[in-house]
Amino acid sequence: MASRAGPAAGRGMNTRFAQFKLVLLGESAVGKSSIVLRFVKDQFDSYRESTIGAAFLTQTISLDENTTVKFEIWDTAGQERYKSLAPMYYRNANCAVVVYDITQSSSLDKAKAWVKELQRQANENIIIALAGNKLDLVSEQPDKRAVPTAEAEAYANEAGLLFFETSAKTAENVQELFTAIAKKLPLDQVGPRHTRPGQRPGGVNLGPAEGRDTQAGGPCSC
Amino acid sequence: METLSAETWDTVICGTGLSQSLLALALSRSKKRILHLDANDFYGEHEAALSLQEADAWAHAHAGGDVTHQLDNKPASTNNGNEDIASDGDKFLTAPVLSGKESTLFRNAHVRKHHNAEAQGLSFPRAYSLALAPQIIYTQSKLLSQLVSSKAYRQVEFLAVGSFFVYGTTDAASGTILARIPSSREDVFSAQSIPARSKRALMKFLKFVIDYDSDEHKLVWQARADEPLSEFLIEHFKLDERLQNSTLALTLTLDGKVTVKDGLVTIHRHLTSIGLFGSGFCAVYPKWGGTSEIAQVGCRAGAVGGSTYMLDTPVSMGEADHGGNISLKLSNEVSIRTTTLISSQQTCSTTSPSISRVVAVINSPLQSLFEILAEGAPTPAVAVVAFPSGSLPNNSQSGSDVPVYAFVHSSETGECPSGQSVVYLTMQAAPQSPHVLDMALTALLQAATTTADILYKLYYEQATSSRQPLVTSQGSATVFELPSPSLGLAFDDENLVAVKEAWKIVMKDEALDDAFMKFEDREGMGDDDDDVYD
């Protein structure tokens, strides 16, 4: 906990720290969790089990010397049958990654349905990225490709989405995907959920370490 | 859908209100098989935060004035906790709905939109998030310590509740004002508007409250514990009318008749909450709709723990099961079995009064109400304004001699776009309360700003169930009905007692008192430096 305030403070007054909520959506087995695993931990596991319910994790990236972006990532289960979880993840989300599998054309249809739902239900200014995953499979065997790059890209342009073809296995374009999202986020806006709680005016930190400093120090903590 | 009926659930939780969602959080590491349902297509039940579109639909569904017609086939004495639901169940002609889309606790809802709302600044419907239960949370509340110990607080952004104001008339010349209530000794010292003699009286009272529980002070008030606080303030502390009003306002009581005992307890809570998590505030409010946001965090924790979530799924009691389990019927005709059923009470208590609320979107930030109260204090996002009994014109004449409270939320709460604010007004329900609330809102806007329009206004009345949980058994299975949300303006820790009881029922002999709501961070959620994948 002590490290929380550390790095930002060390970089002087001009540092910007912004925190954003990101949600991953897409059909089962397209590789949502694998993309997150690559991004957060730089690992890959071919035999990953399906996500149950959802998983939450965080990753911080530095855009430049002075700008740090922290993603709160909500990875949802593609298998979720009752369509009841996604609304609580995309509520107040700043950005979304909608994933499909470039070797399964039906998964792009599902991705399009998610994009539609996001555009209908989520924040009006949500930033959506479309990620065609499993690029490694078609690099090895080009005939496995079921969704031509141009087709997905045309759709992404038309719908106003960021677009990348990724491989969680080889790491191709994974970092690029998240960096592109970070760059598109409204970093200069002092607004909802953008800055770290406890460091901006208005936020109250309940955390054990910093939040109770005034307590531990007694009535006069000077 | 097949798998839903294939297994016997350890528990089925009906409704995603705050209490049920806190239970979901409490059970999120238990490995129990949990099915969590809500009849609505949004989270939060009675404590939801709604977009304007959702608010319109919600108001339409709760426009009815007669709350009892939906309860016709309920047994009359549902307050009796010993009744066996199974035997009553046989008498039902139609299956009782455990969790339906239209709550029986809300009524007379209607929406009024400014005739030129969009031109005056009303944004798109999802830019708003109007809280049905905008309770503030005192920093002393066990809710906060449980959110910290369960690590759920990491997903909530807490904002400071700042000034408490009292609306009143100064004199004929200067008209009406909003006077900030001094709530600490430093505050009293620096308040220039209070005459020296009154200051001494107020100081004496504040000192008394801080230590109200001491043997010495108990001697003073215990004999008068059930008398009205206002009389005690006059007789014992010689507080003038203005200071009385300020003091009573801090109790946040809606009937204007707080007793000495309850008053001292709540003012003590107020004073001792100041500074607990930082200077200048005594309470917090979760961003994005208050307790609604905490409910969602609880449900997310449940989902991460493997619980199954289904929205838009009303539930009713099914045929009795021979294996001693509870059988439930979902709206999609699927039958499910469980050993425990947790729901929230839908029957209005006939003894407790209901409240009237107005939620209004204002096209002004009402900046003057969100002053920073101490050096280094966070900018408050919520201000409280009390209209004491009789302070509004016509109020006393119309026979409604009760106070009105307003919570003013800045756009920092995420409930409206910047440049606007949301005002939540509450008073005890009476036939004239729509009119009184309108008057209070107008008075507030006139006192706080020069120009402001009401862009959108939602009125409704809210009742409450019995304050005790109802526990009934059906064979070897248990039905536990949590009390509905309290109508208080601040979160009531009593709710947590019922949540813990429900938790014990689900956990059975695995329930260890000390383990309740105490979790380690899940991997990947803790420090920035060791983010690892779960």
TrEMBL record, chain A:
Q: Which PROSITE patterns match?
A: RAB, RAS, RHO
Keywords carried by this UniProt record: Cell membrane, GTP-binding, Lipoprotein, Membrane, Nucleotide-binding, Prenylation, Protein transport, Transport
Chain intervals for the UniProt region annotation (Disordered)? 188-222
Instruction: State the Pfam families in the record.
Output: Ras (PF00071)
Q: Name one GO cellular component term.
A: endosome
Give the GO molecular function terms.
GTP binding; GTPase activity
Q: What is its main location?
A: membrane
Q: Which InterPro entries match?
A: P-loop_NTPase (IPR027417), Small_GTP-bd (IPR005225), Small_GTPase (IPR001806)
Q: Where in the cell is it found?
A: Cell membrane
Sorted alphabetically, the Gene Ontology BP terms of this entry are: protein transport; vesicle organization; vesicle-mediated transport
What is the protein's membrane topology class?
A: Lipid-anchor
Which SUPFAM superfamilies does the UniProt record give?
A: P-loop containing nucleoside triphosphate hydrolases
Matches recorded under PANTHER family: PTHR47978
NCBIfam families recorded: small_GTP
Q: Which family does it belong to?
A: Belongs to the small GTPase superfamily. Rab family.
What's this protein's name? GTP-binding protein ypt5
Instruction: Tell me the organism.
Output: Xylaria hypoxylon
For this protein's source organism, the top of the classification is: Eukaryota, Fungi, Dikarya, Ascomycota, Pezizomycotina
TrEMBL record, chain B:
A Gene Ontology molecular function term of the record: GDP-dissociation inhibitor activity
Q: Name one GO biological process term.
A: vesicle-mediated transport
Which parts of the sequence are annotated with region: Disordered?
68-88
InterPro entries documented for this protein: FAD/NAD-bd_sf, GDP_dissociation_inhibitor, Mrs6
Q: Which domain of life is it from?
A: Eukaryota
Q: Which GO terms describe its cellular component?
A: cytosol; nucleus; Rab-protein geranylgeranyltransferase complex
Q: Which Gene3D superfamilies match?
A: FAD/NAD(P)-binding domain, Guanine Nucleotide Dissociation Inhibitor, domain 1, Guanine Nucleotide Dissociation Inhibitor, domain 2
Q: Which family does it belong to?
A: Belongs to the Rab GDI family.
Q: Which protein is depicted?
A: Rab proteins geranylgeranyltransferase
From which source organism is this entry? Xylaria hypoxylon
Provide the taxonomic classification: Eukaryota, Fungi, Dikarya, Ascomycota, Pezizomycotina
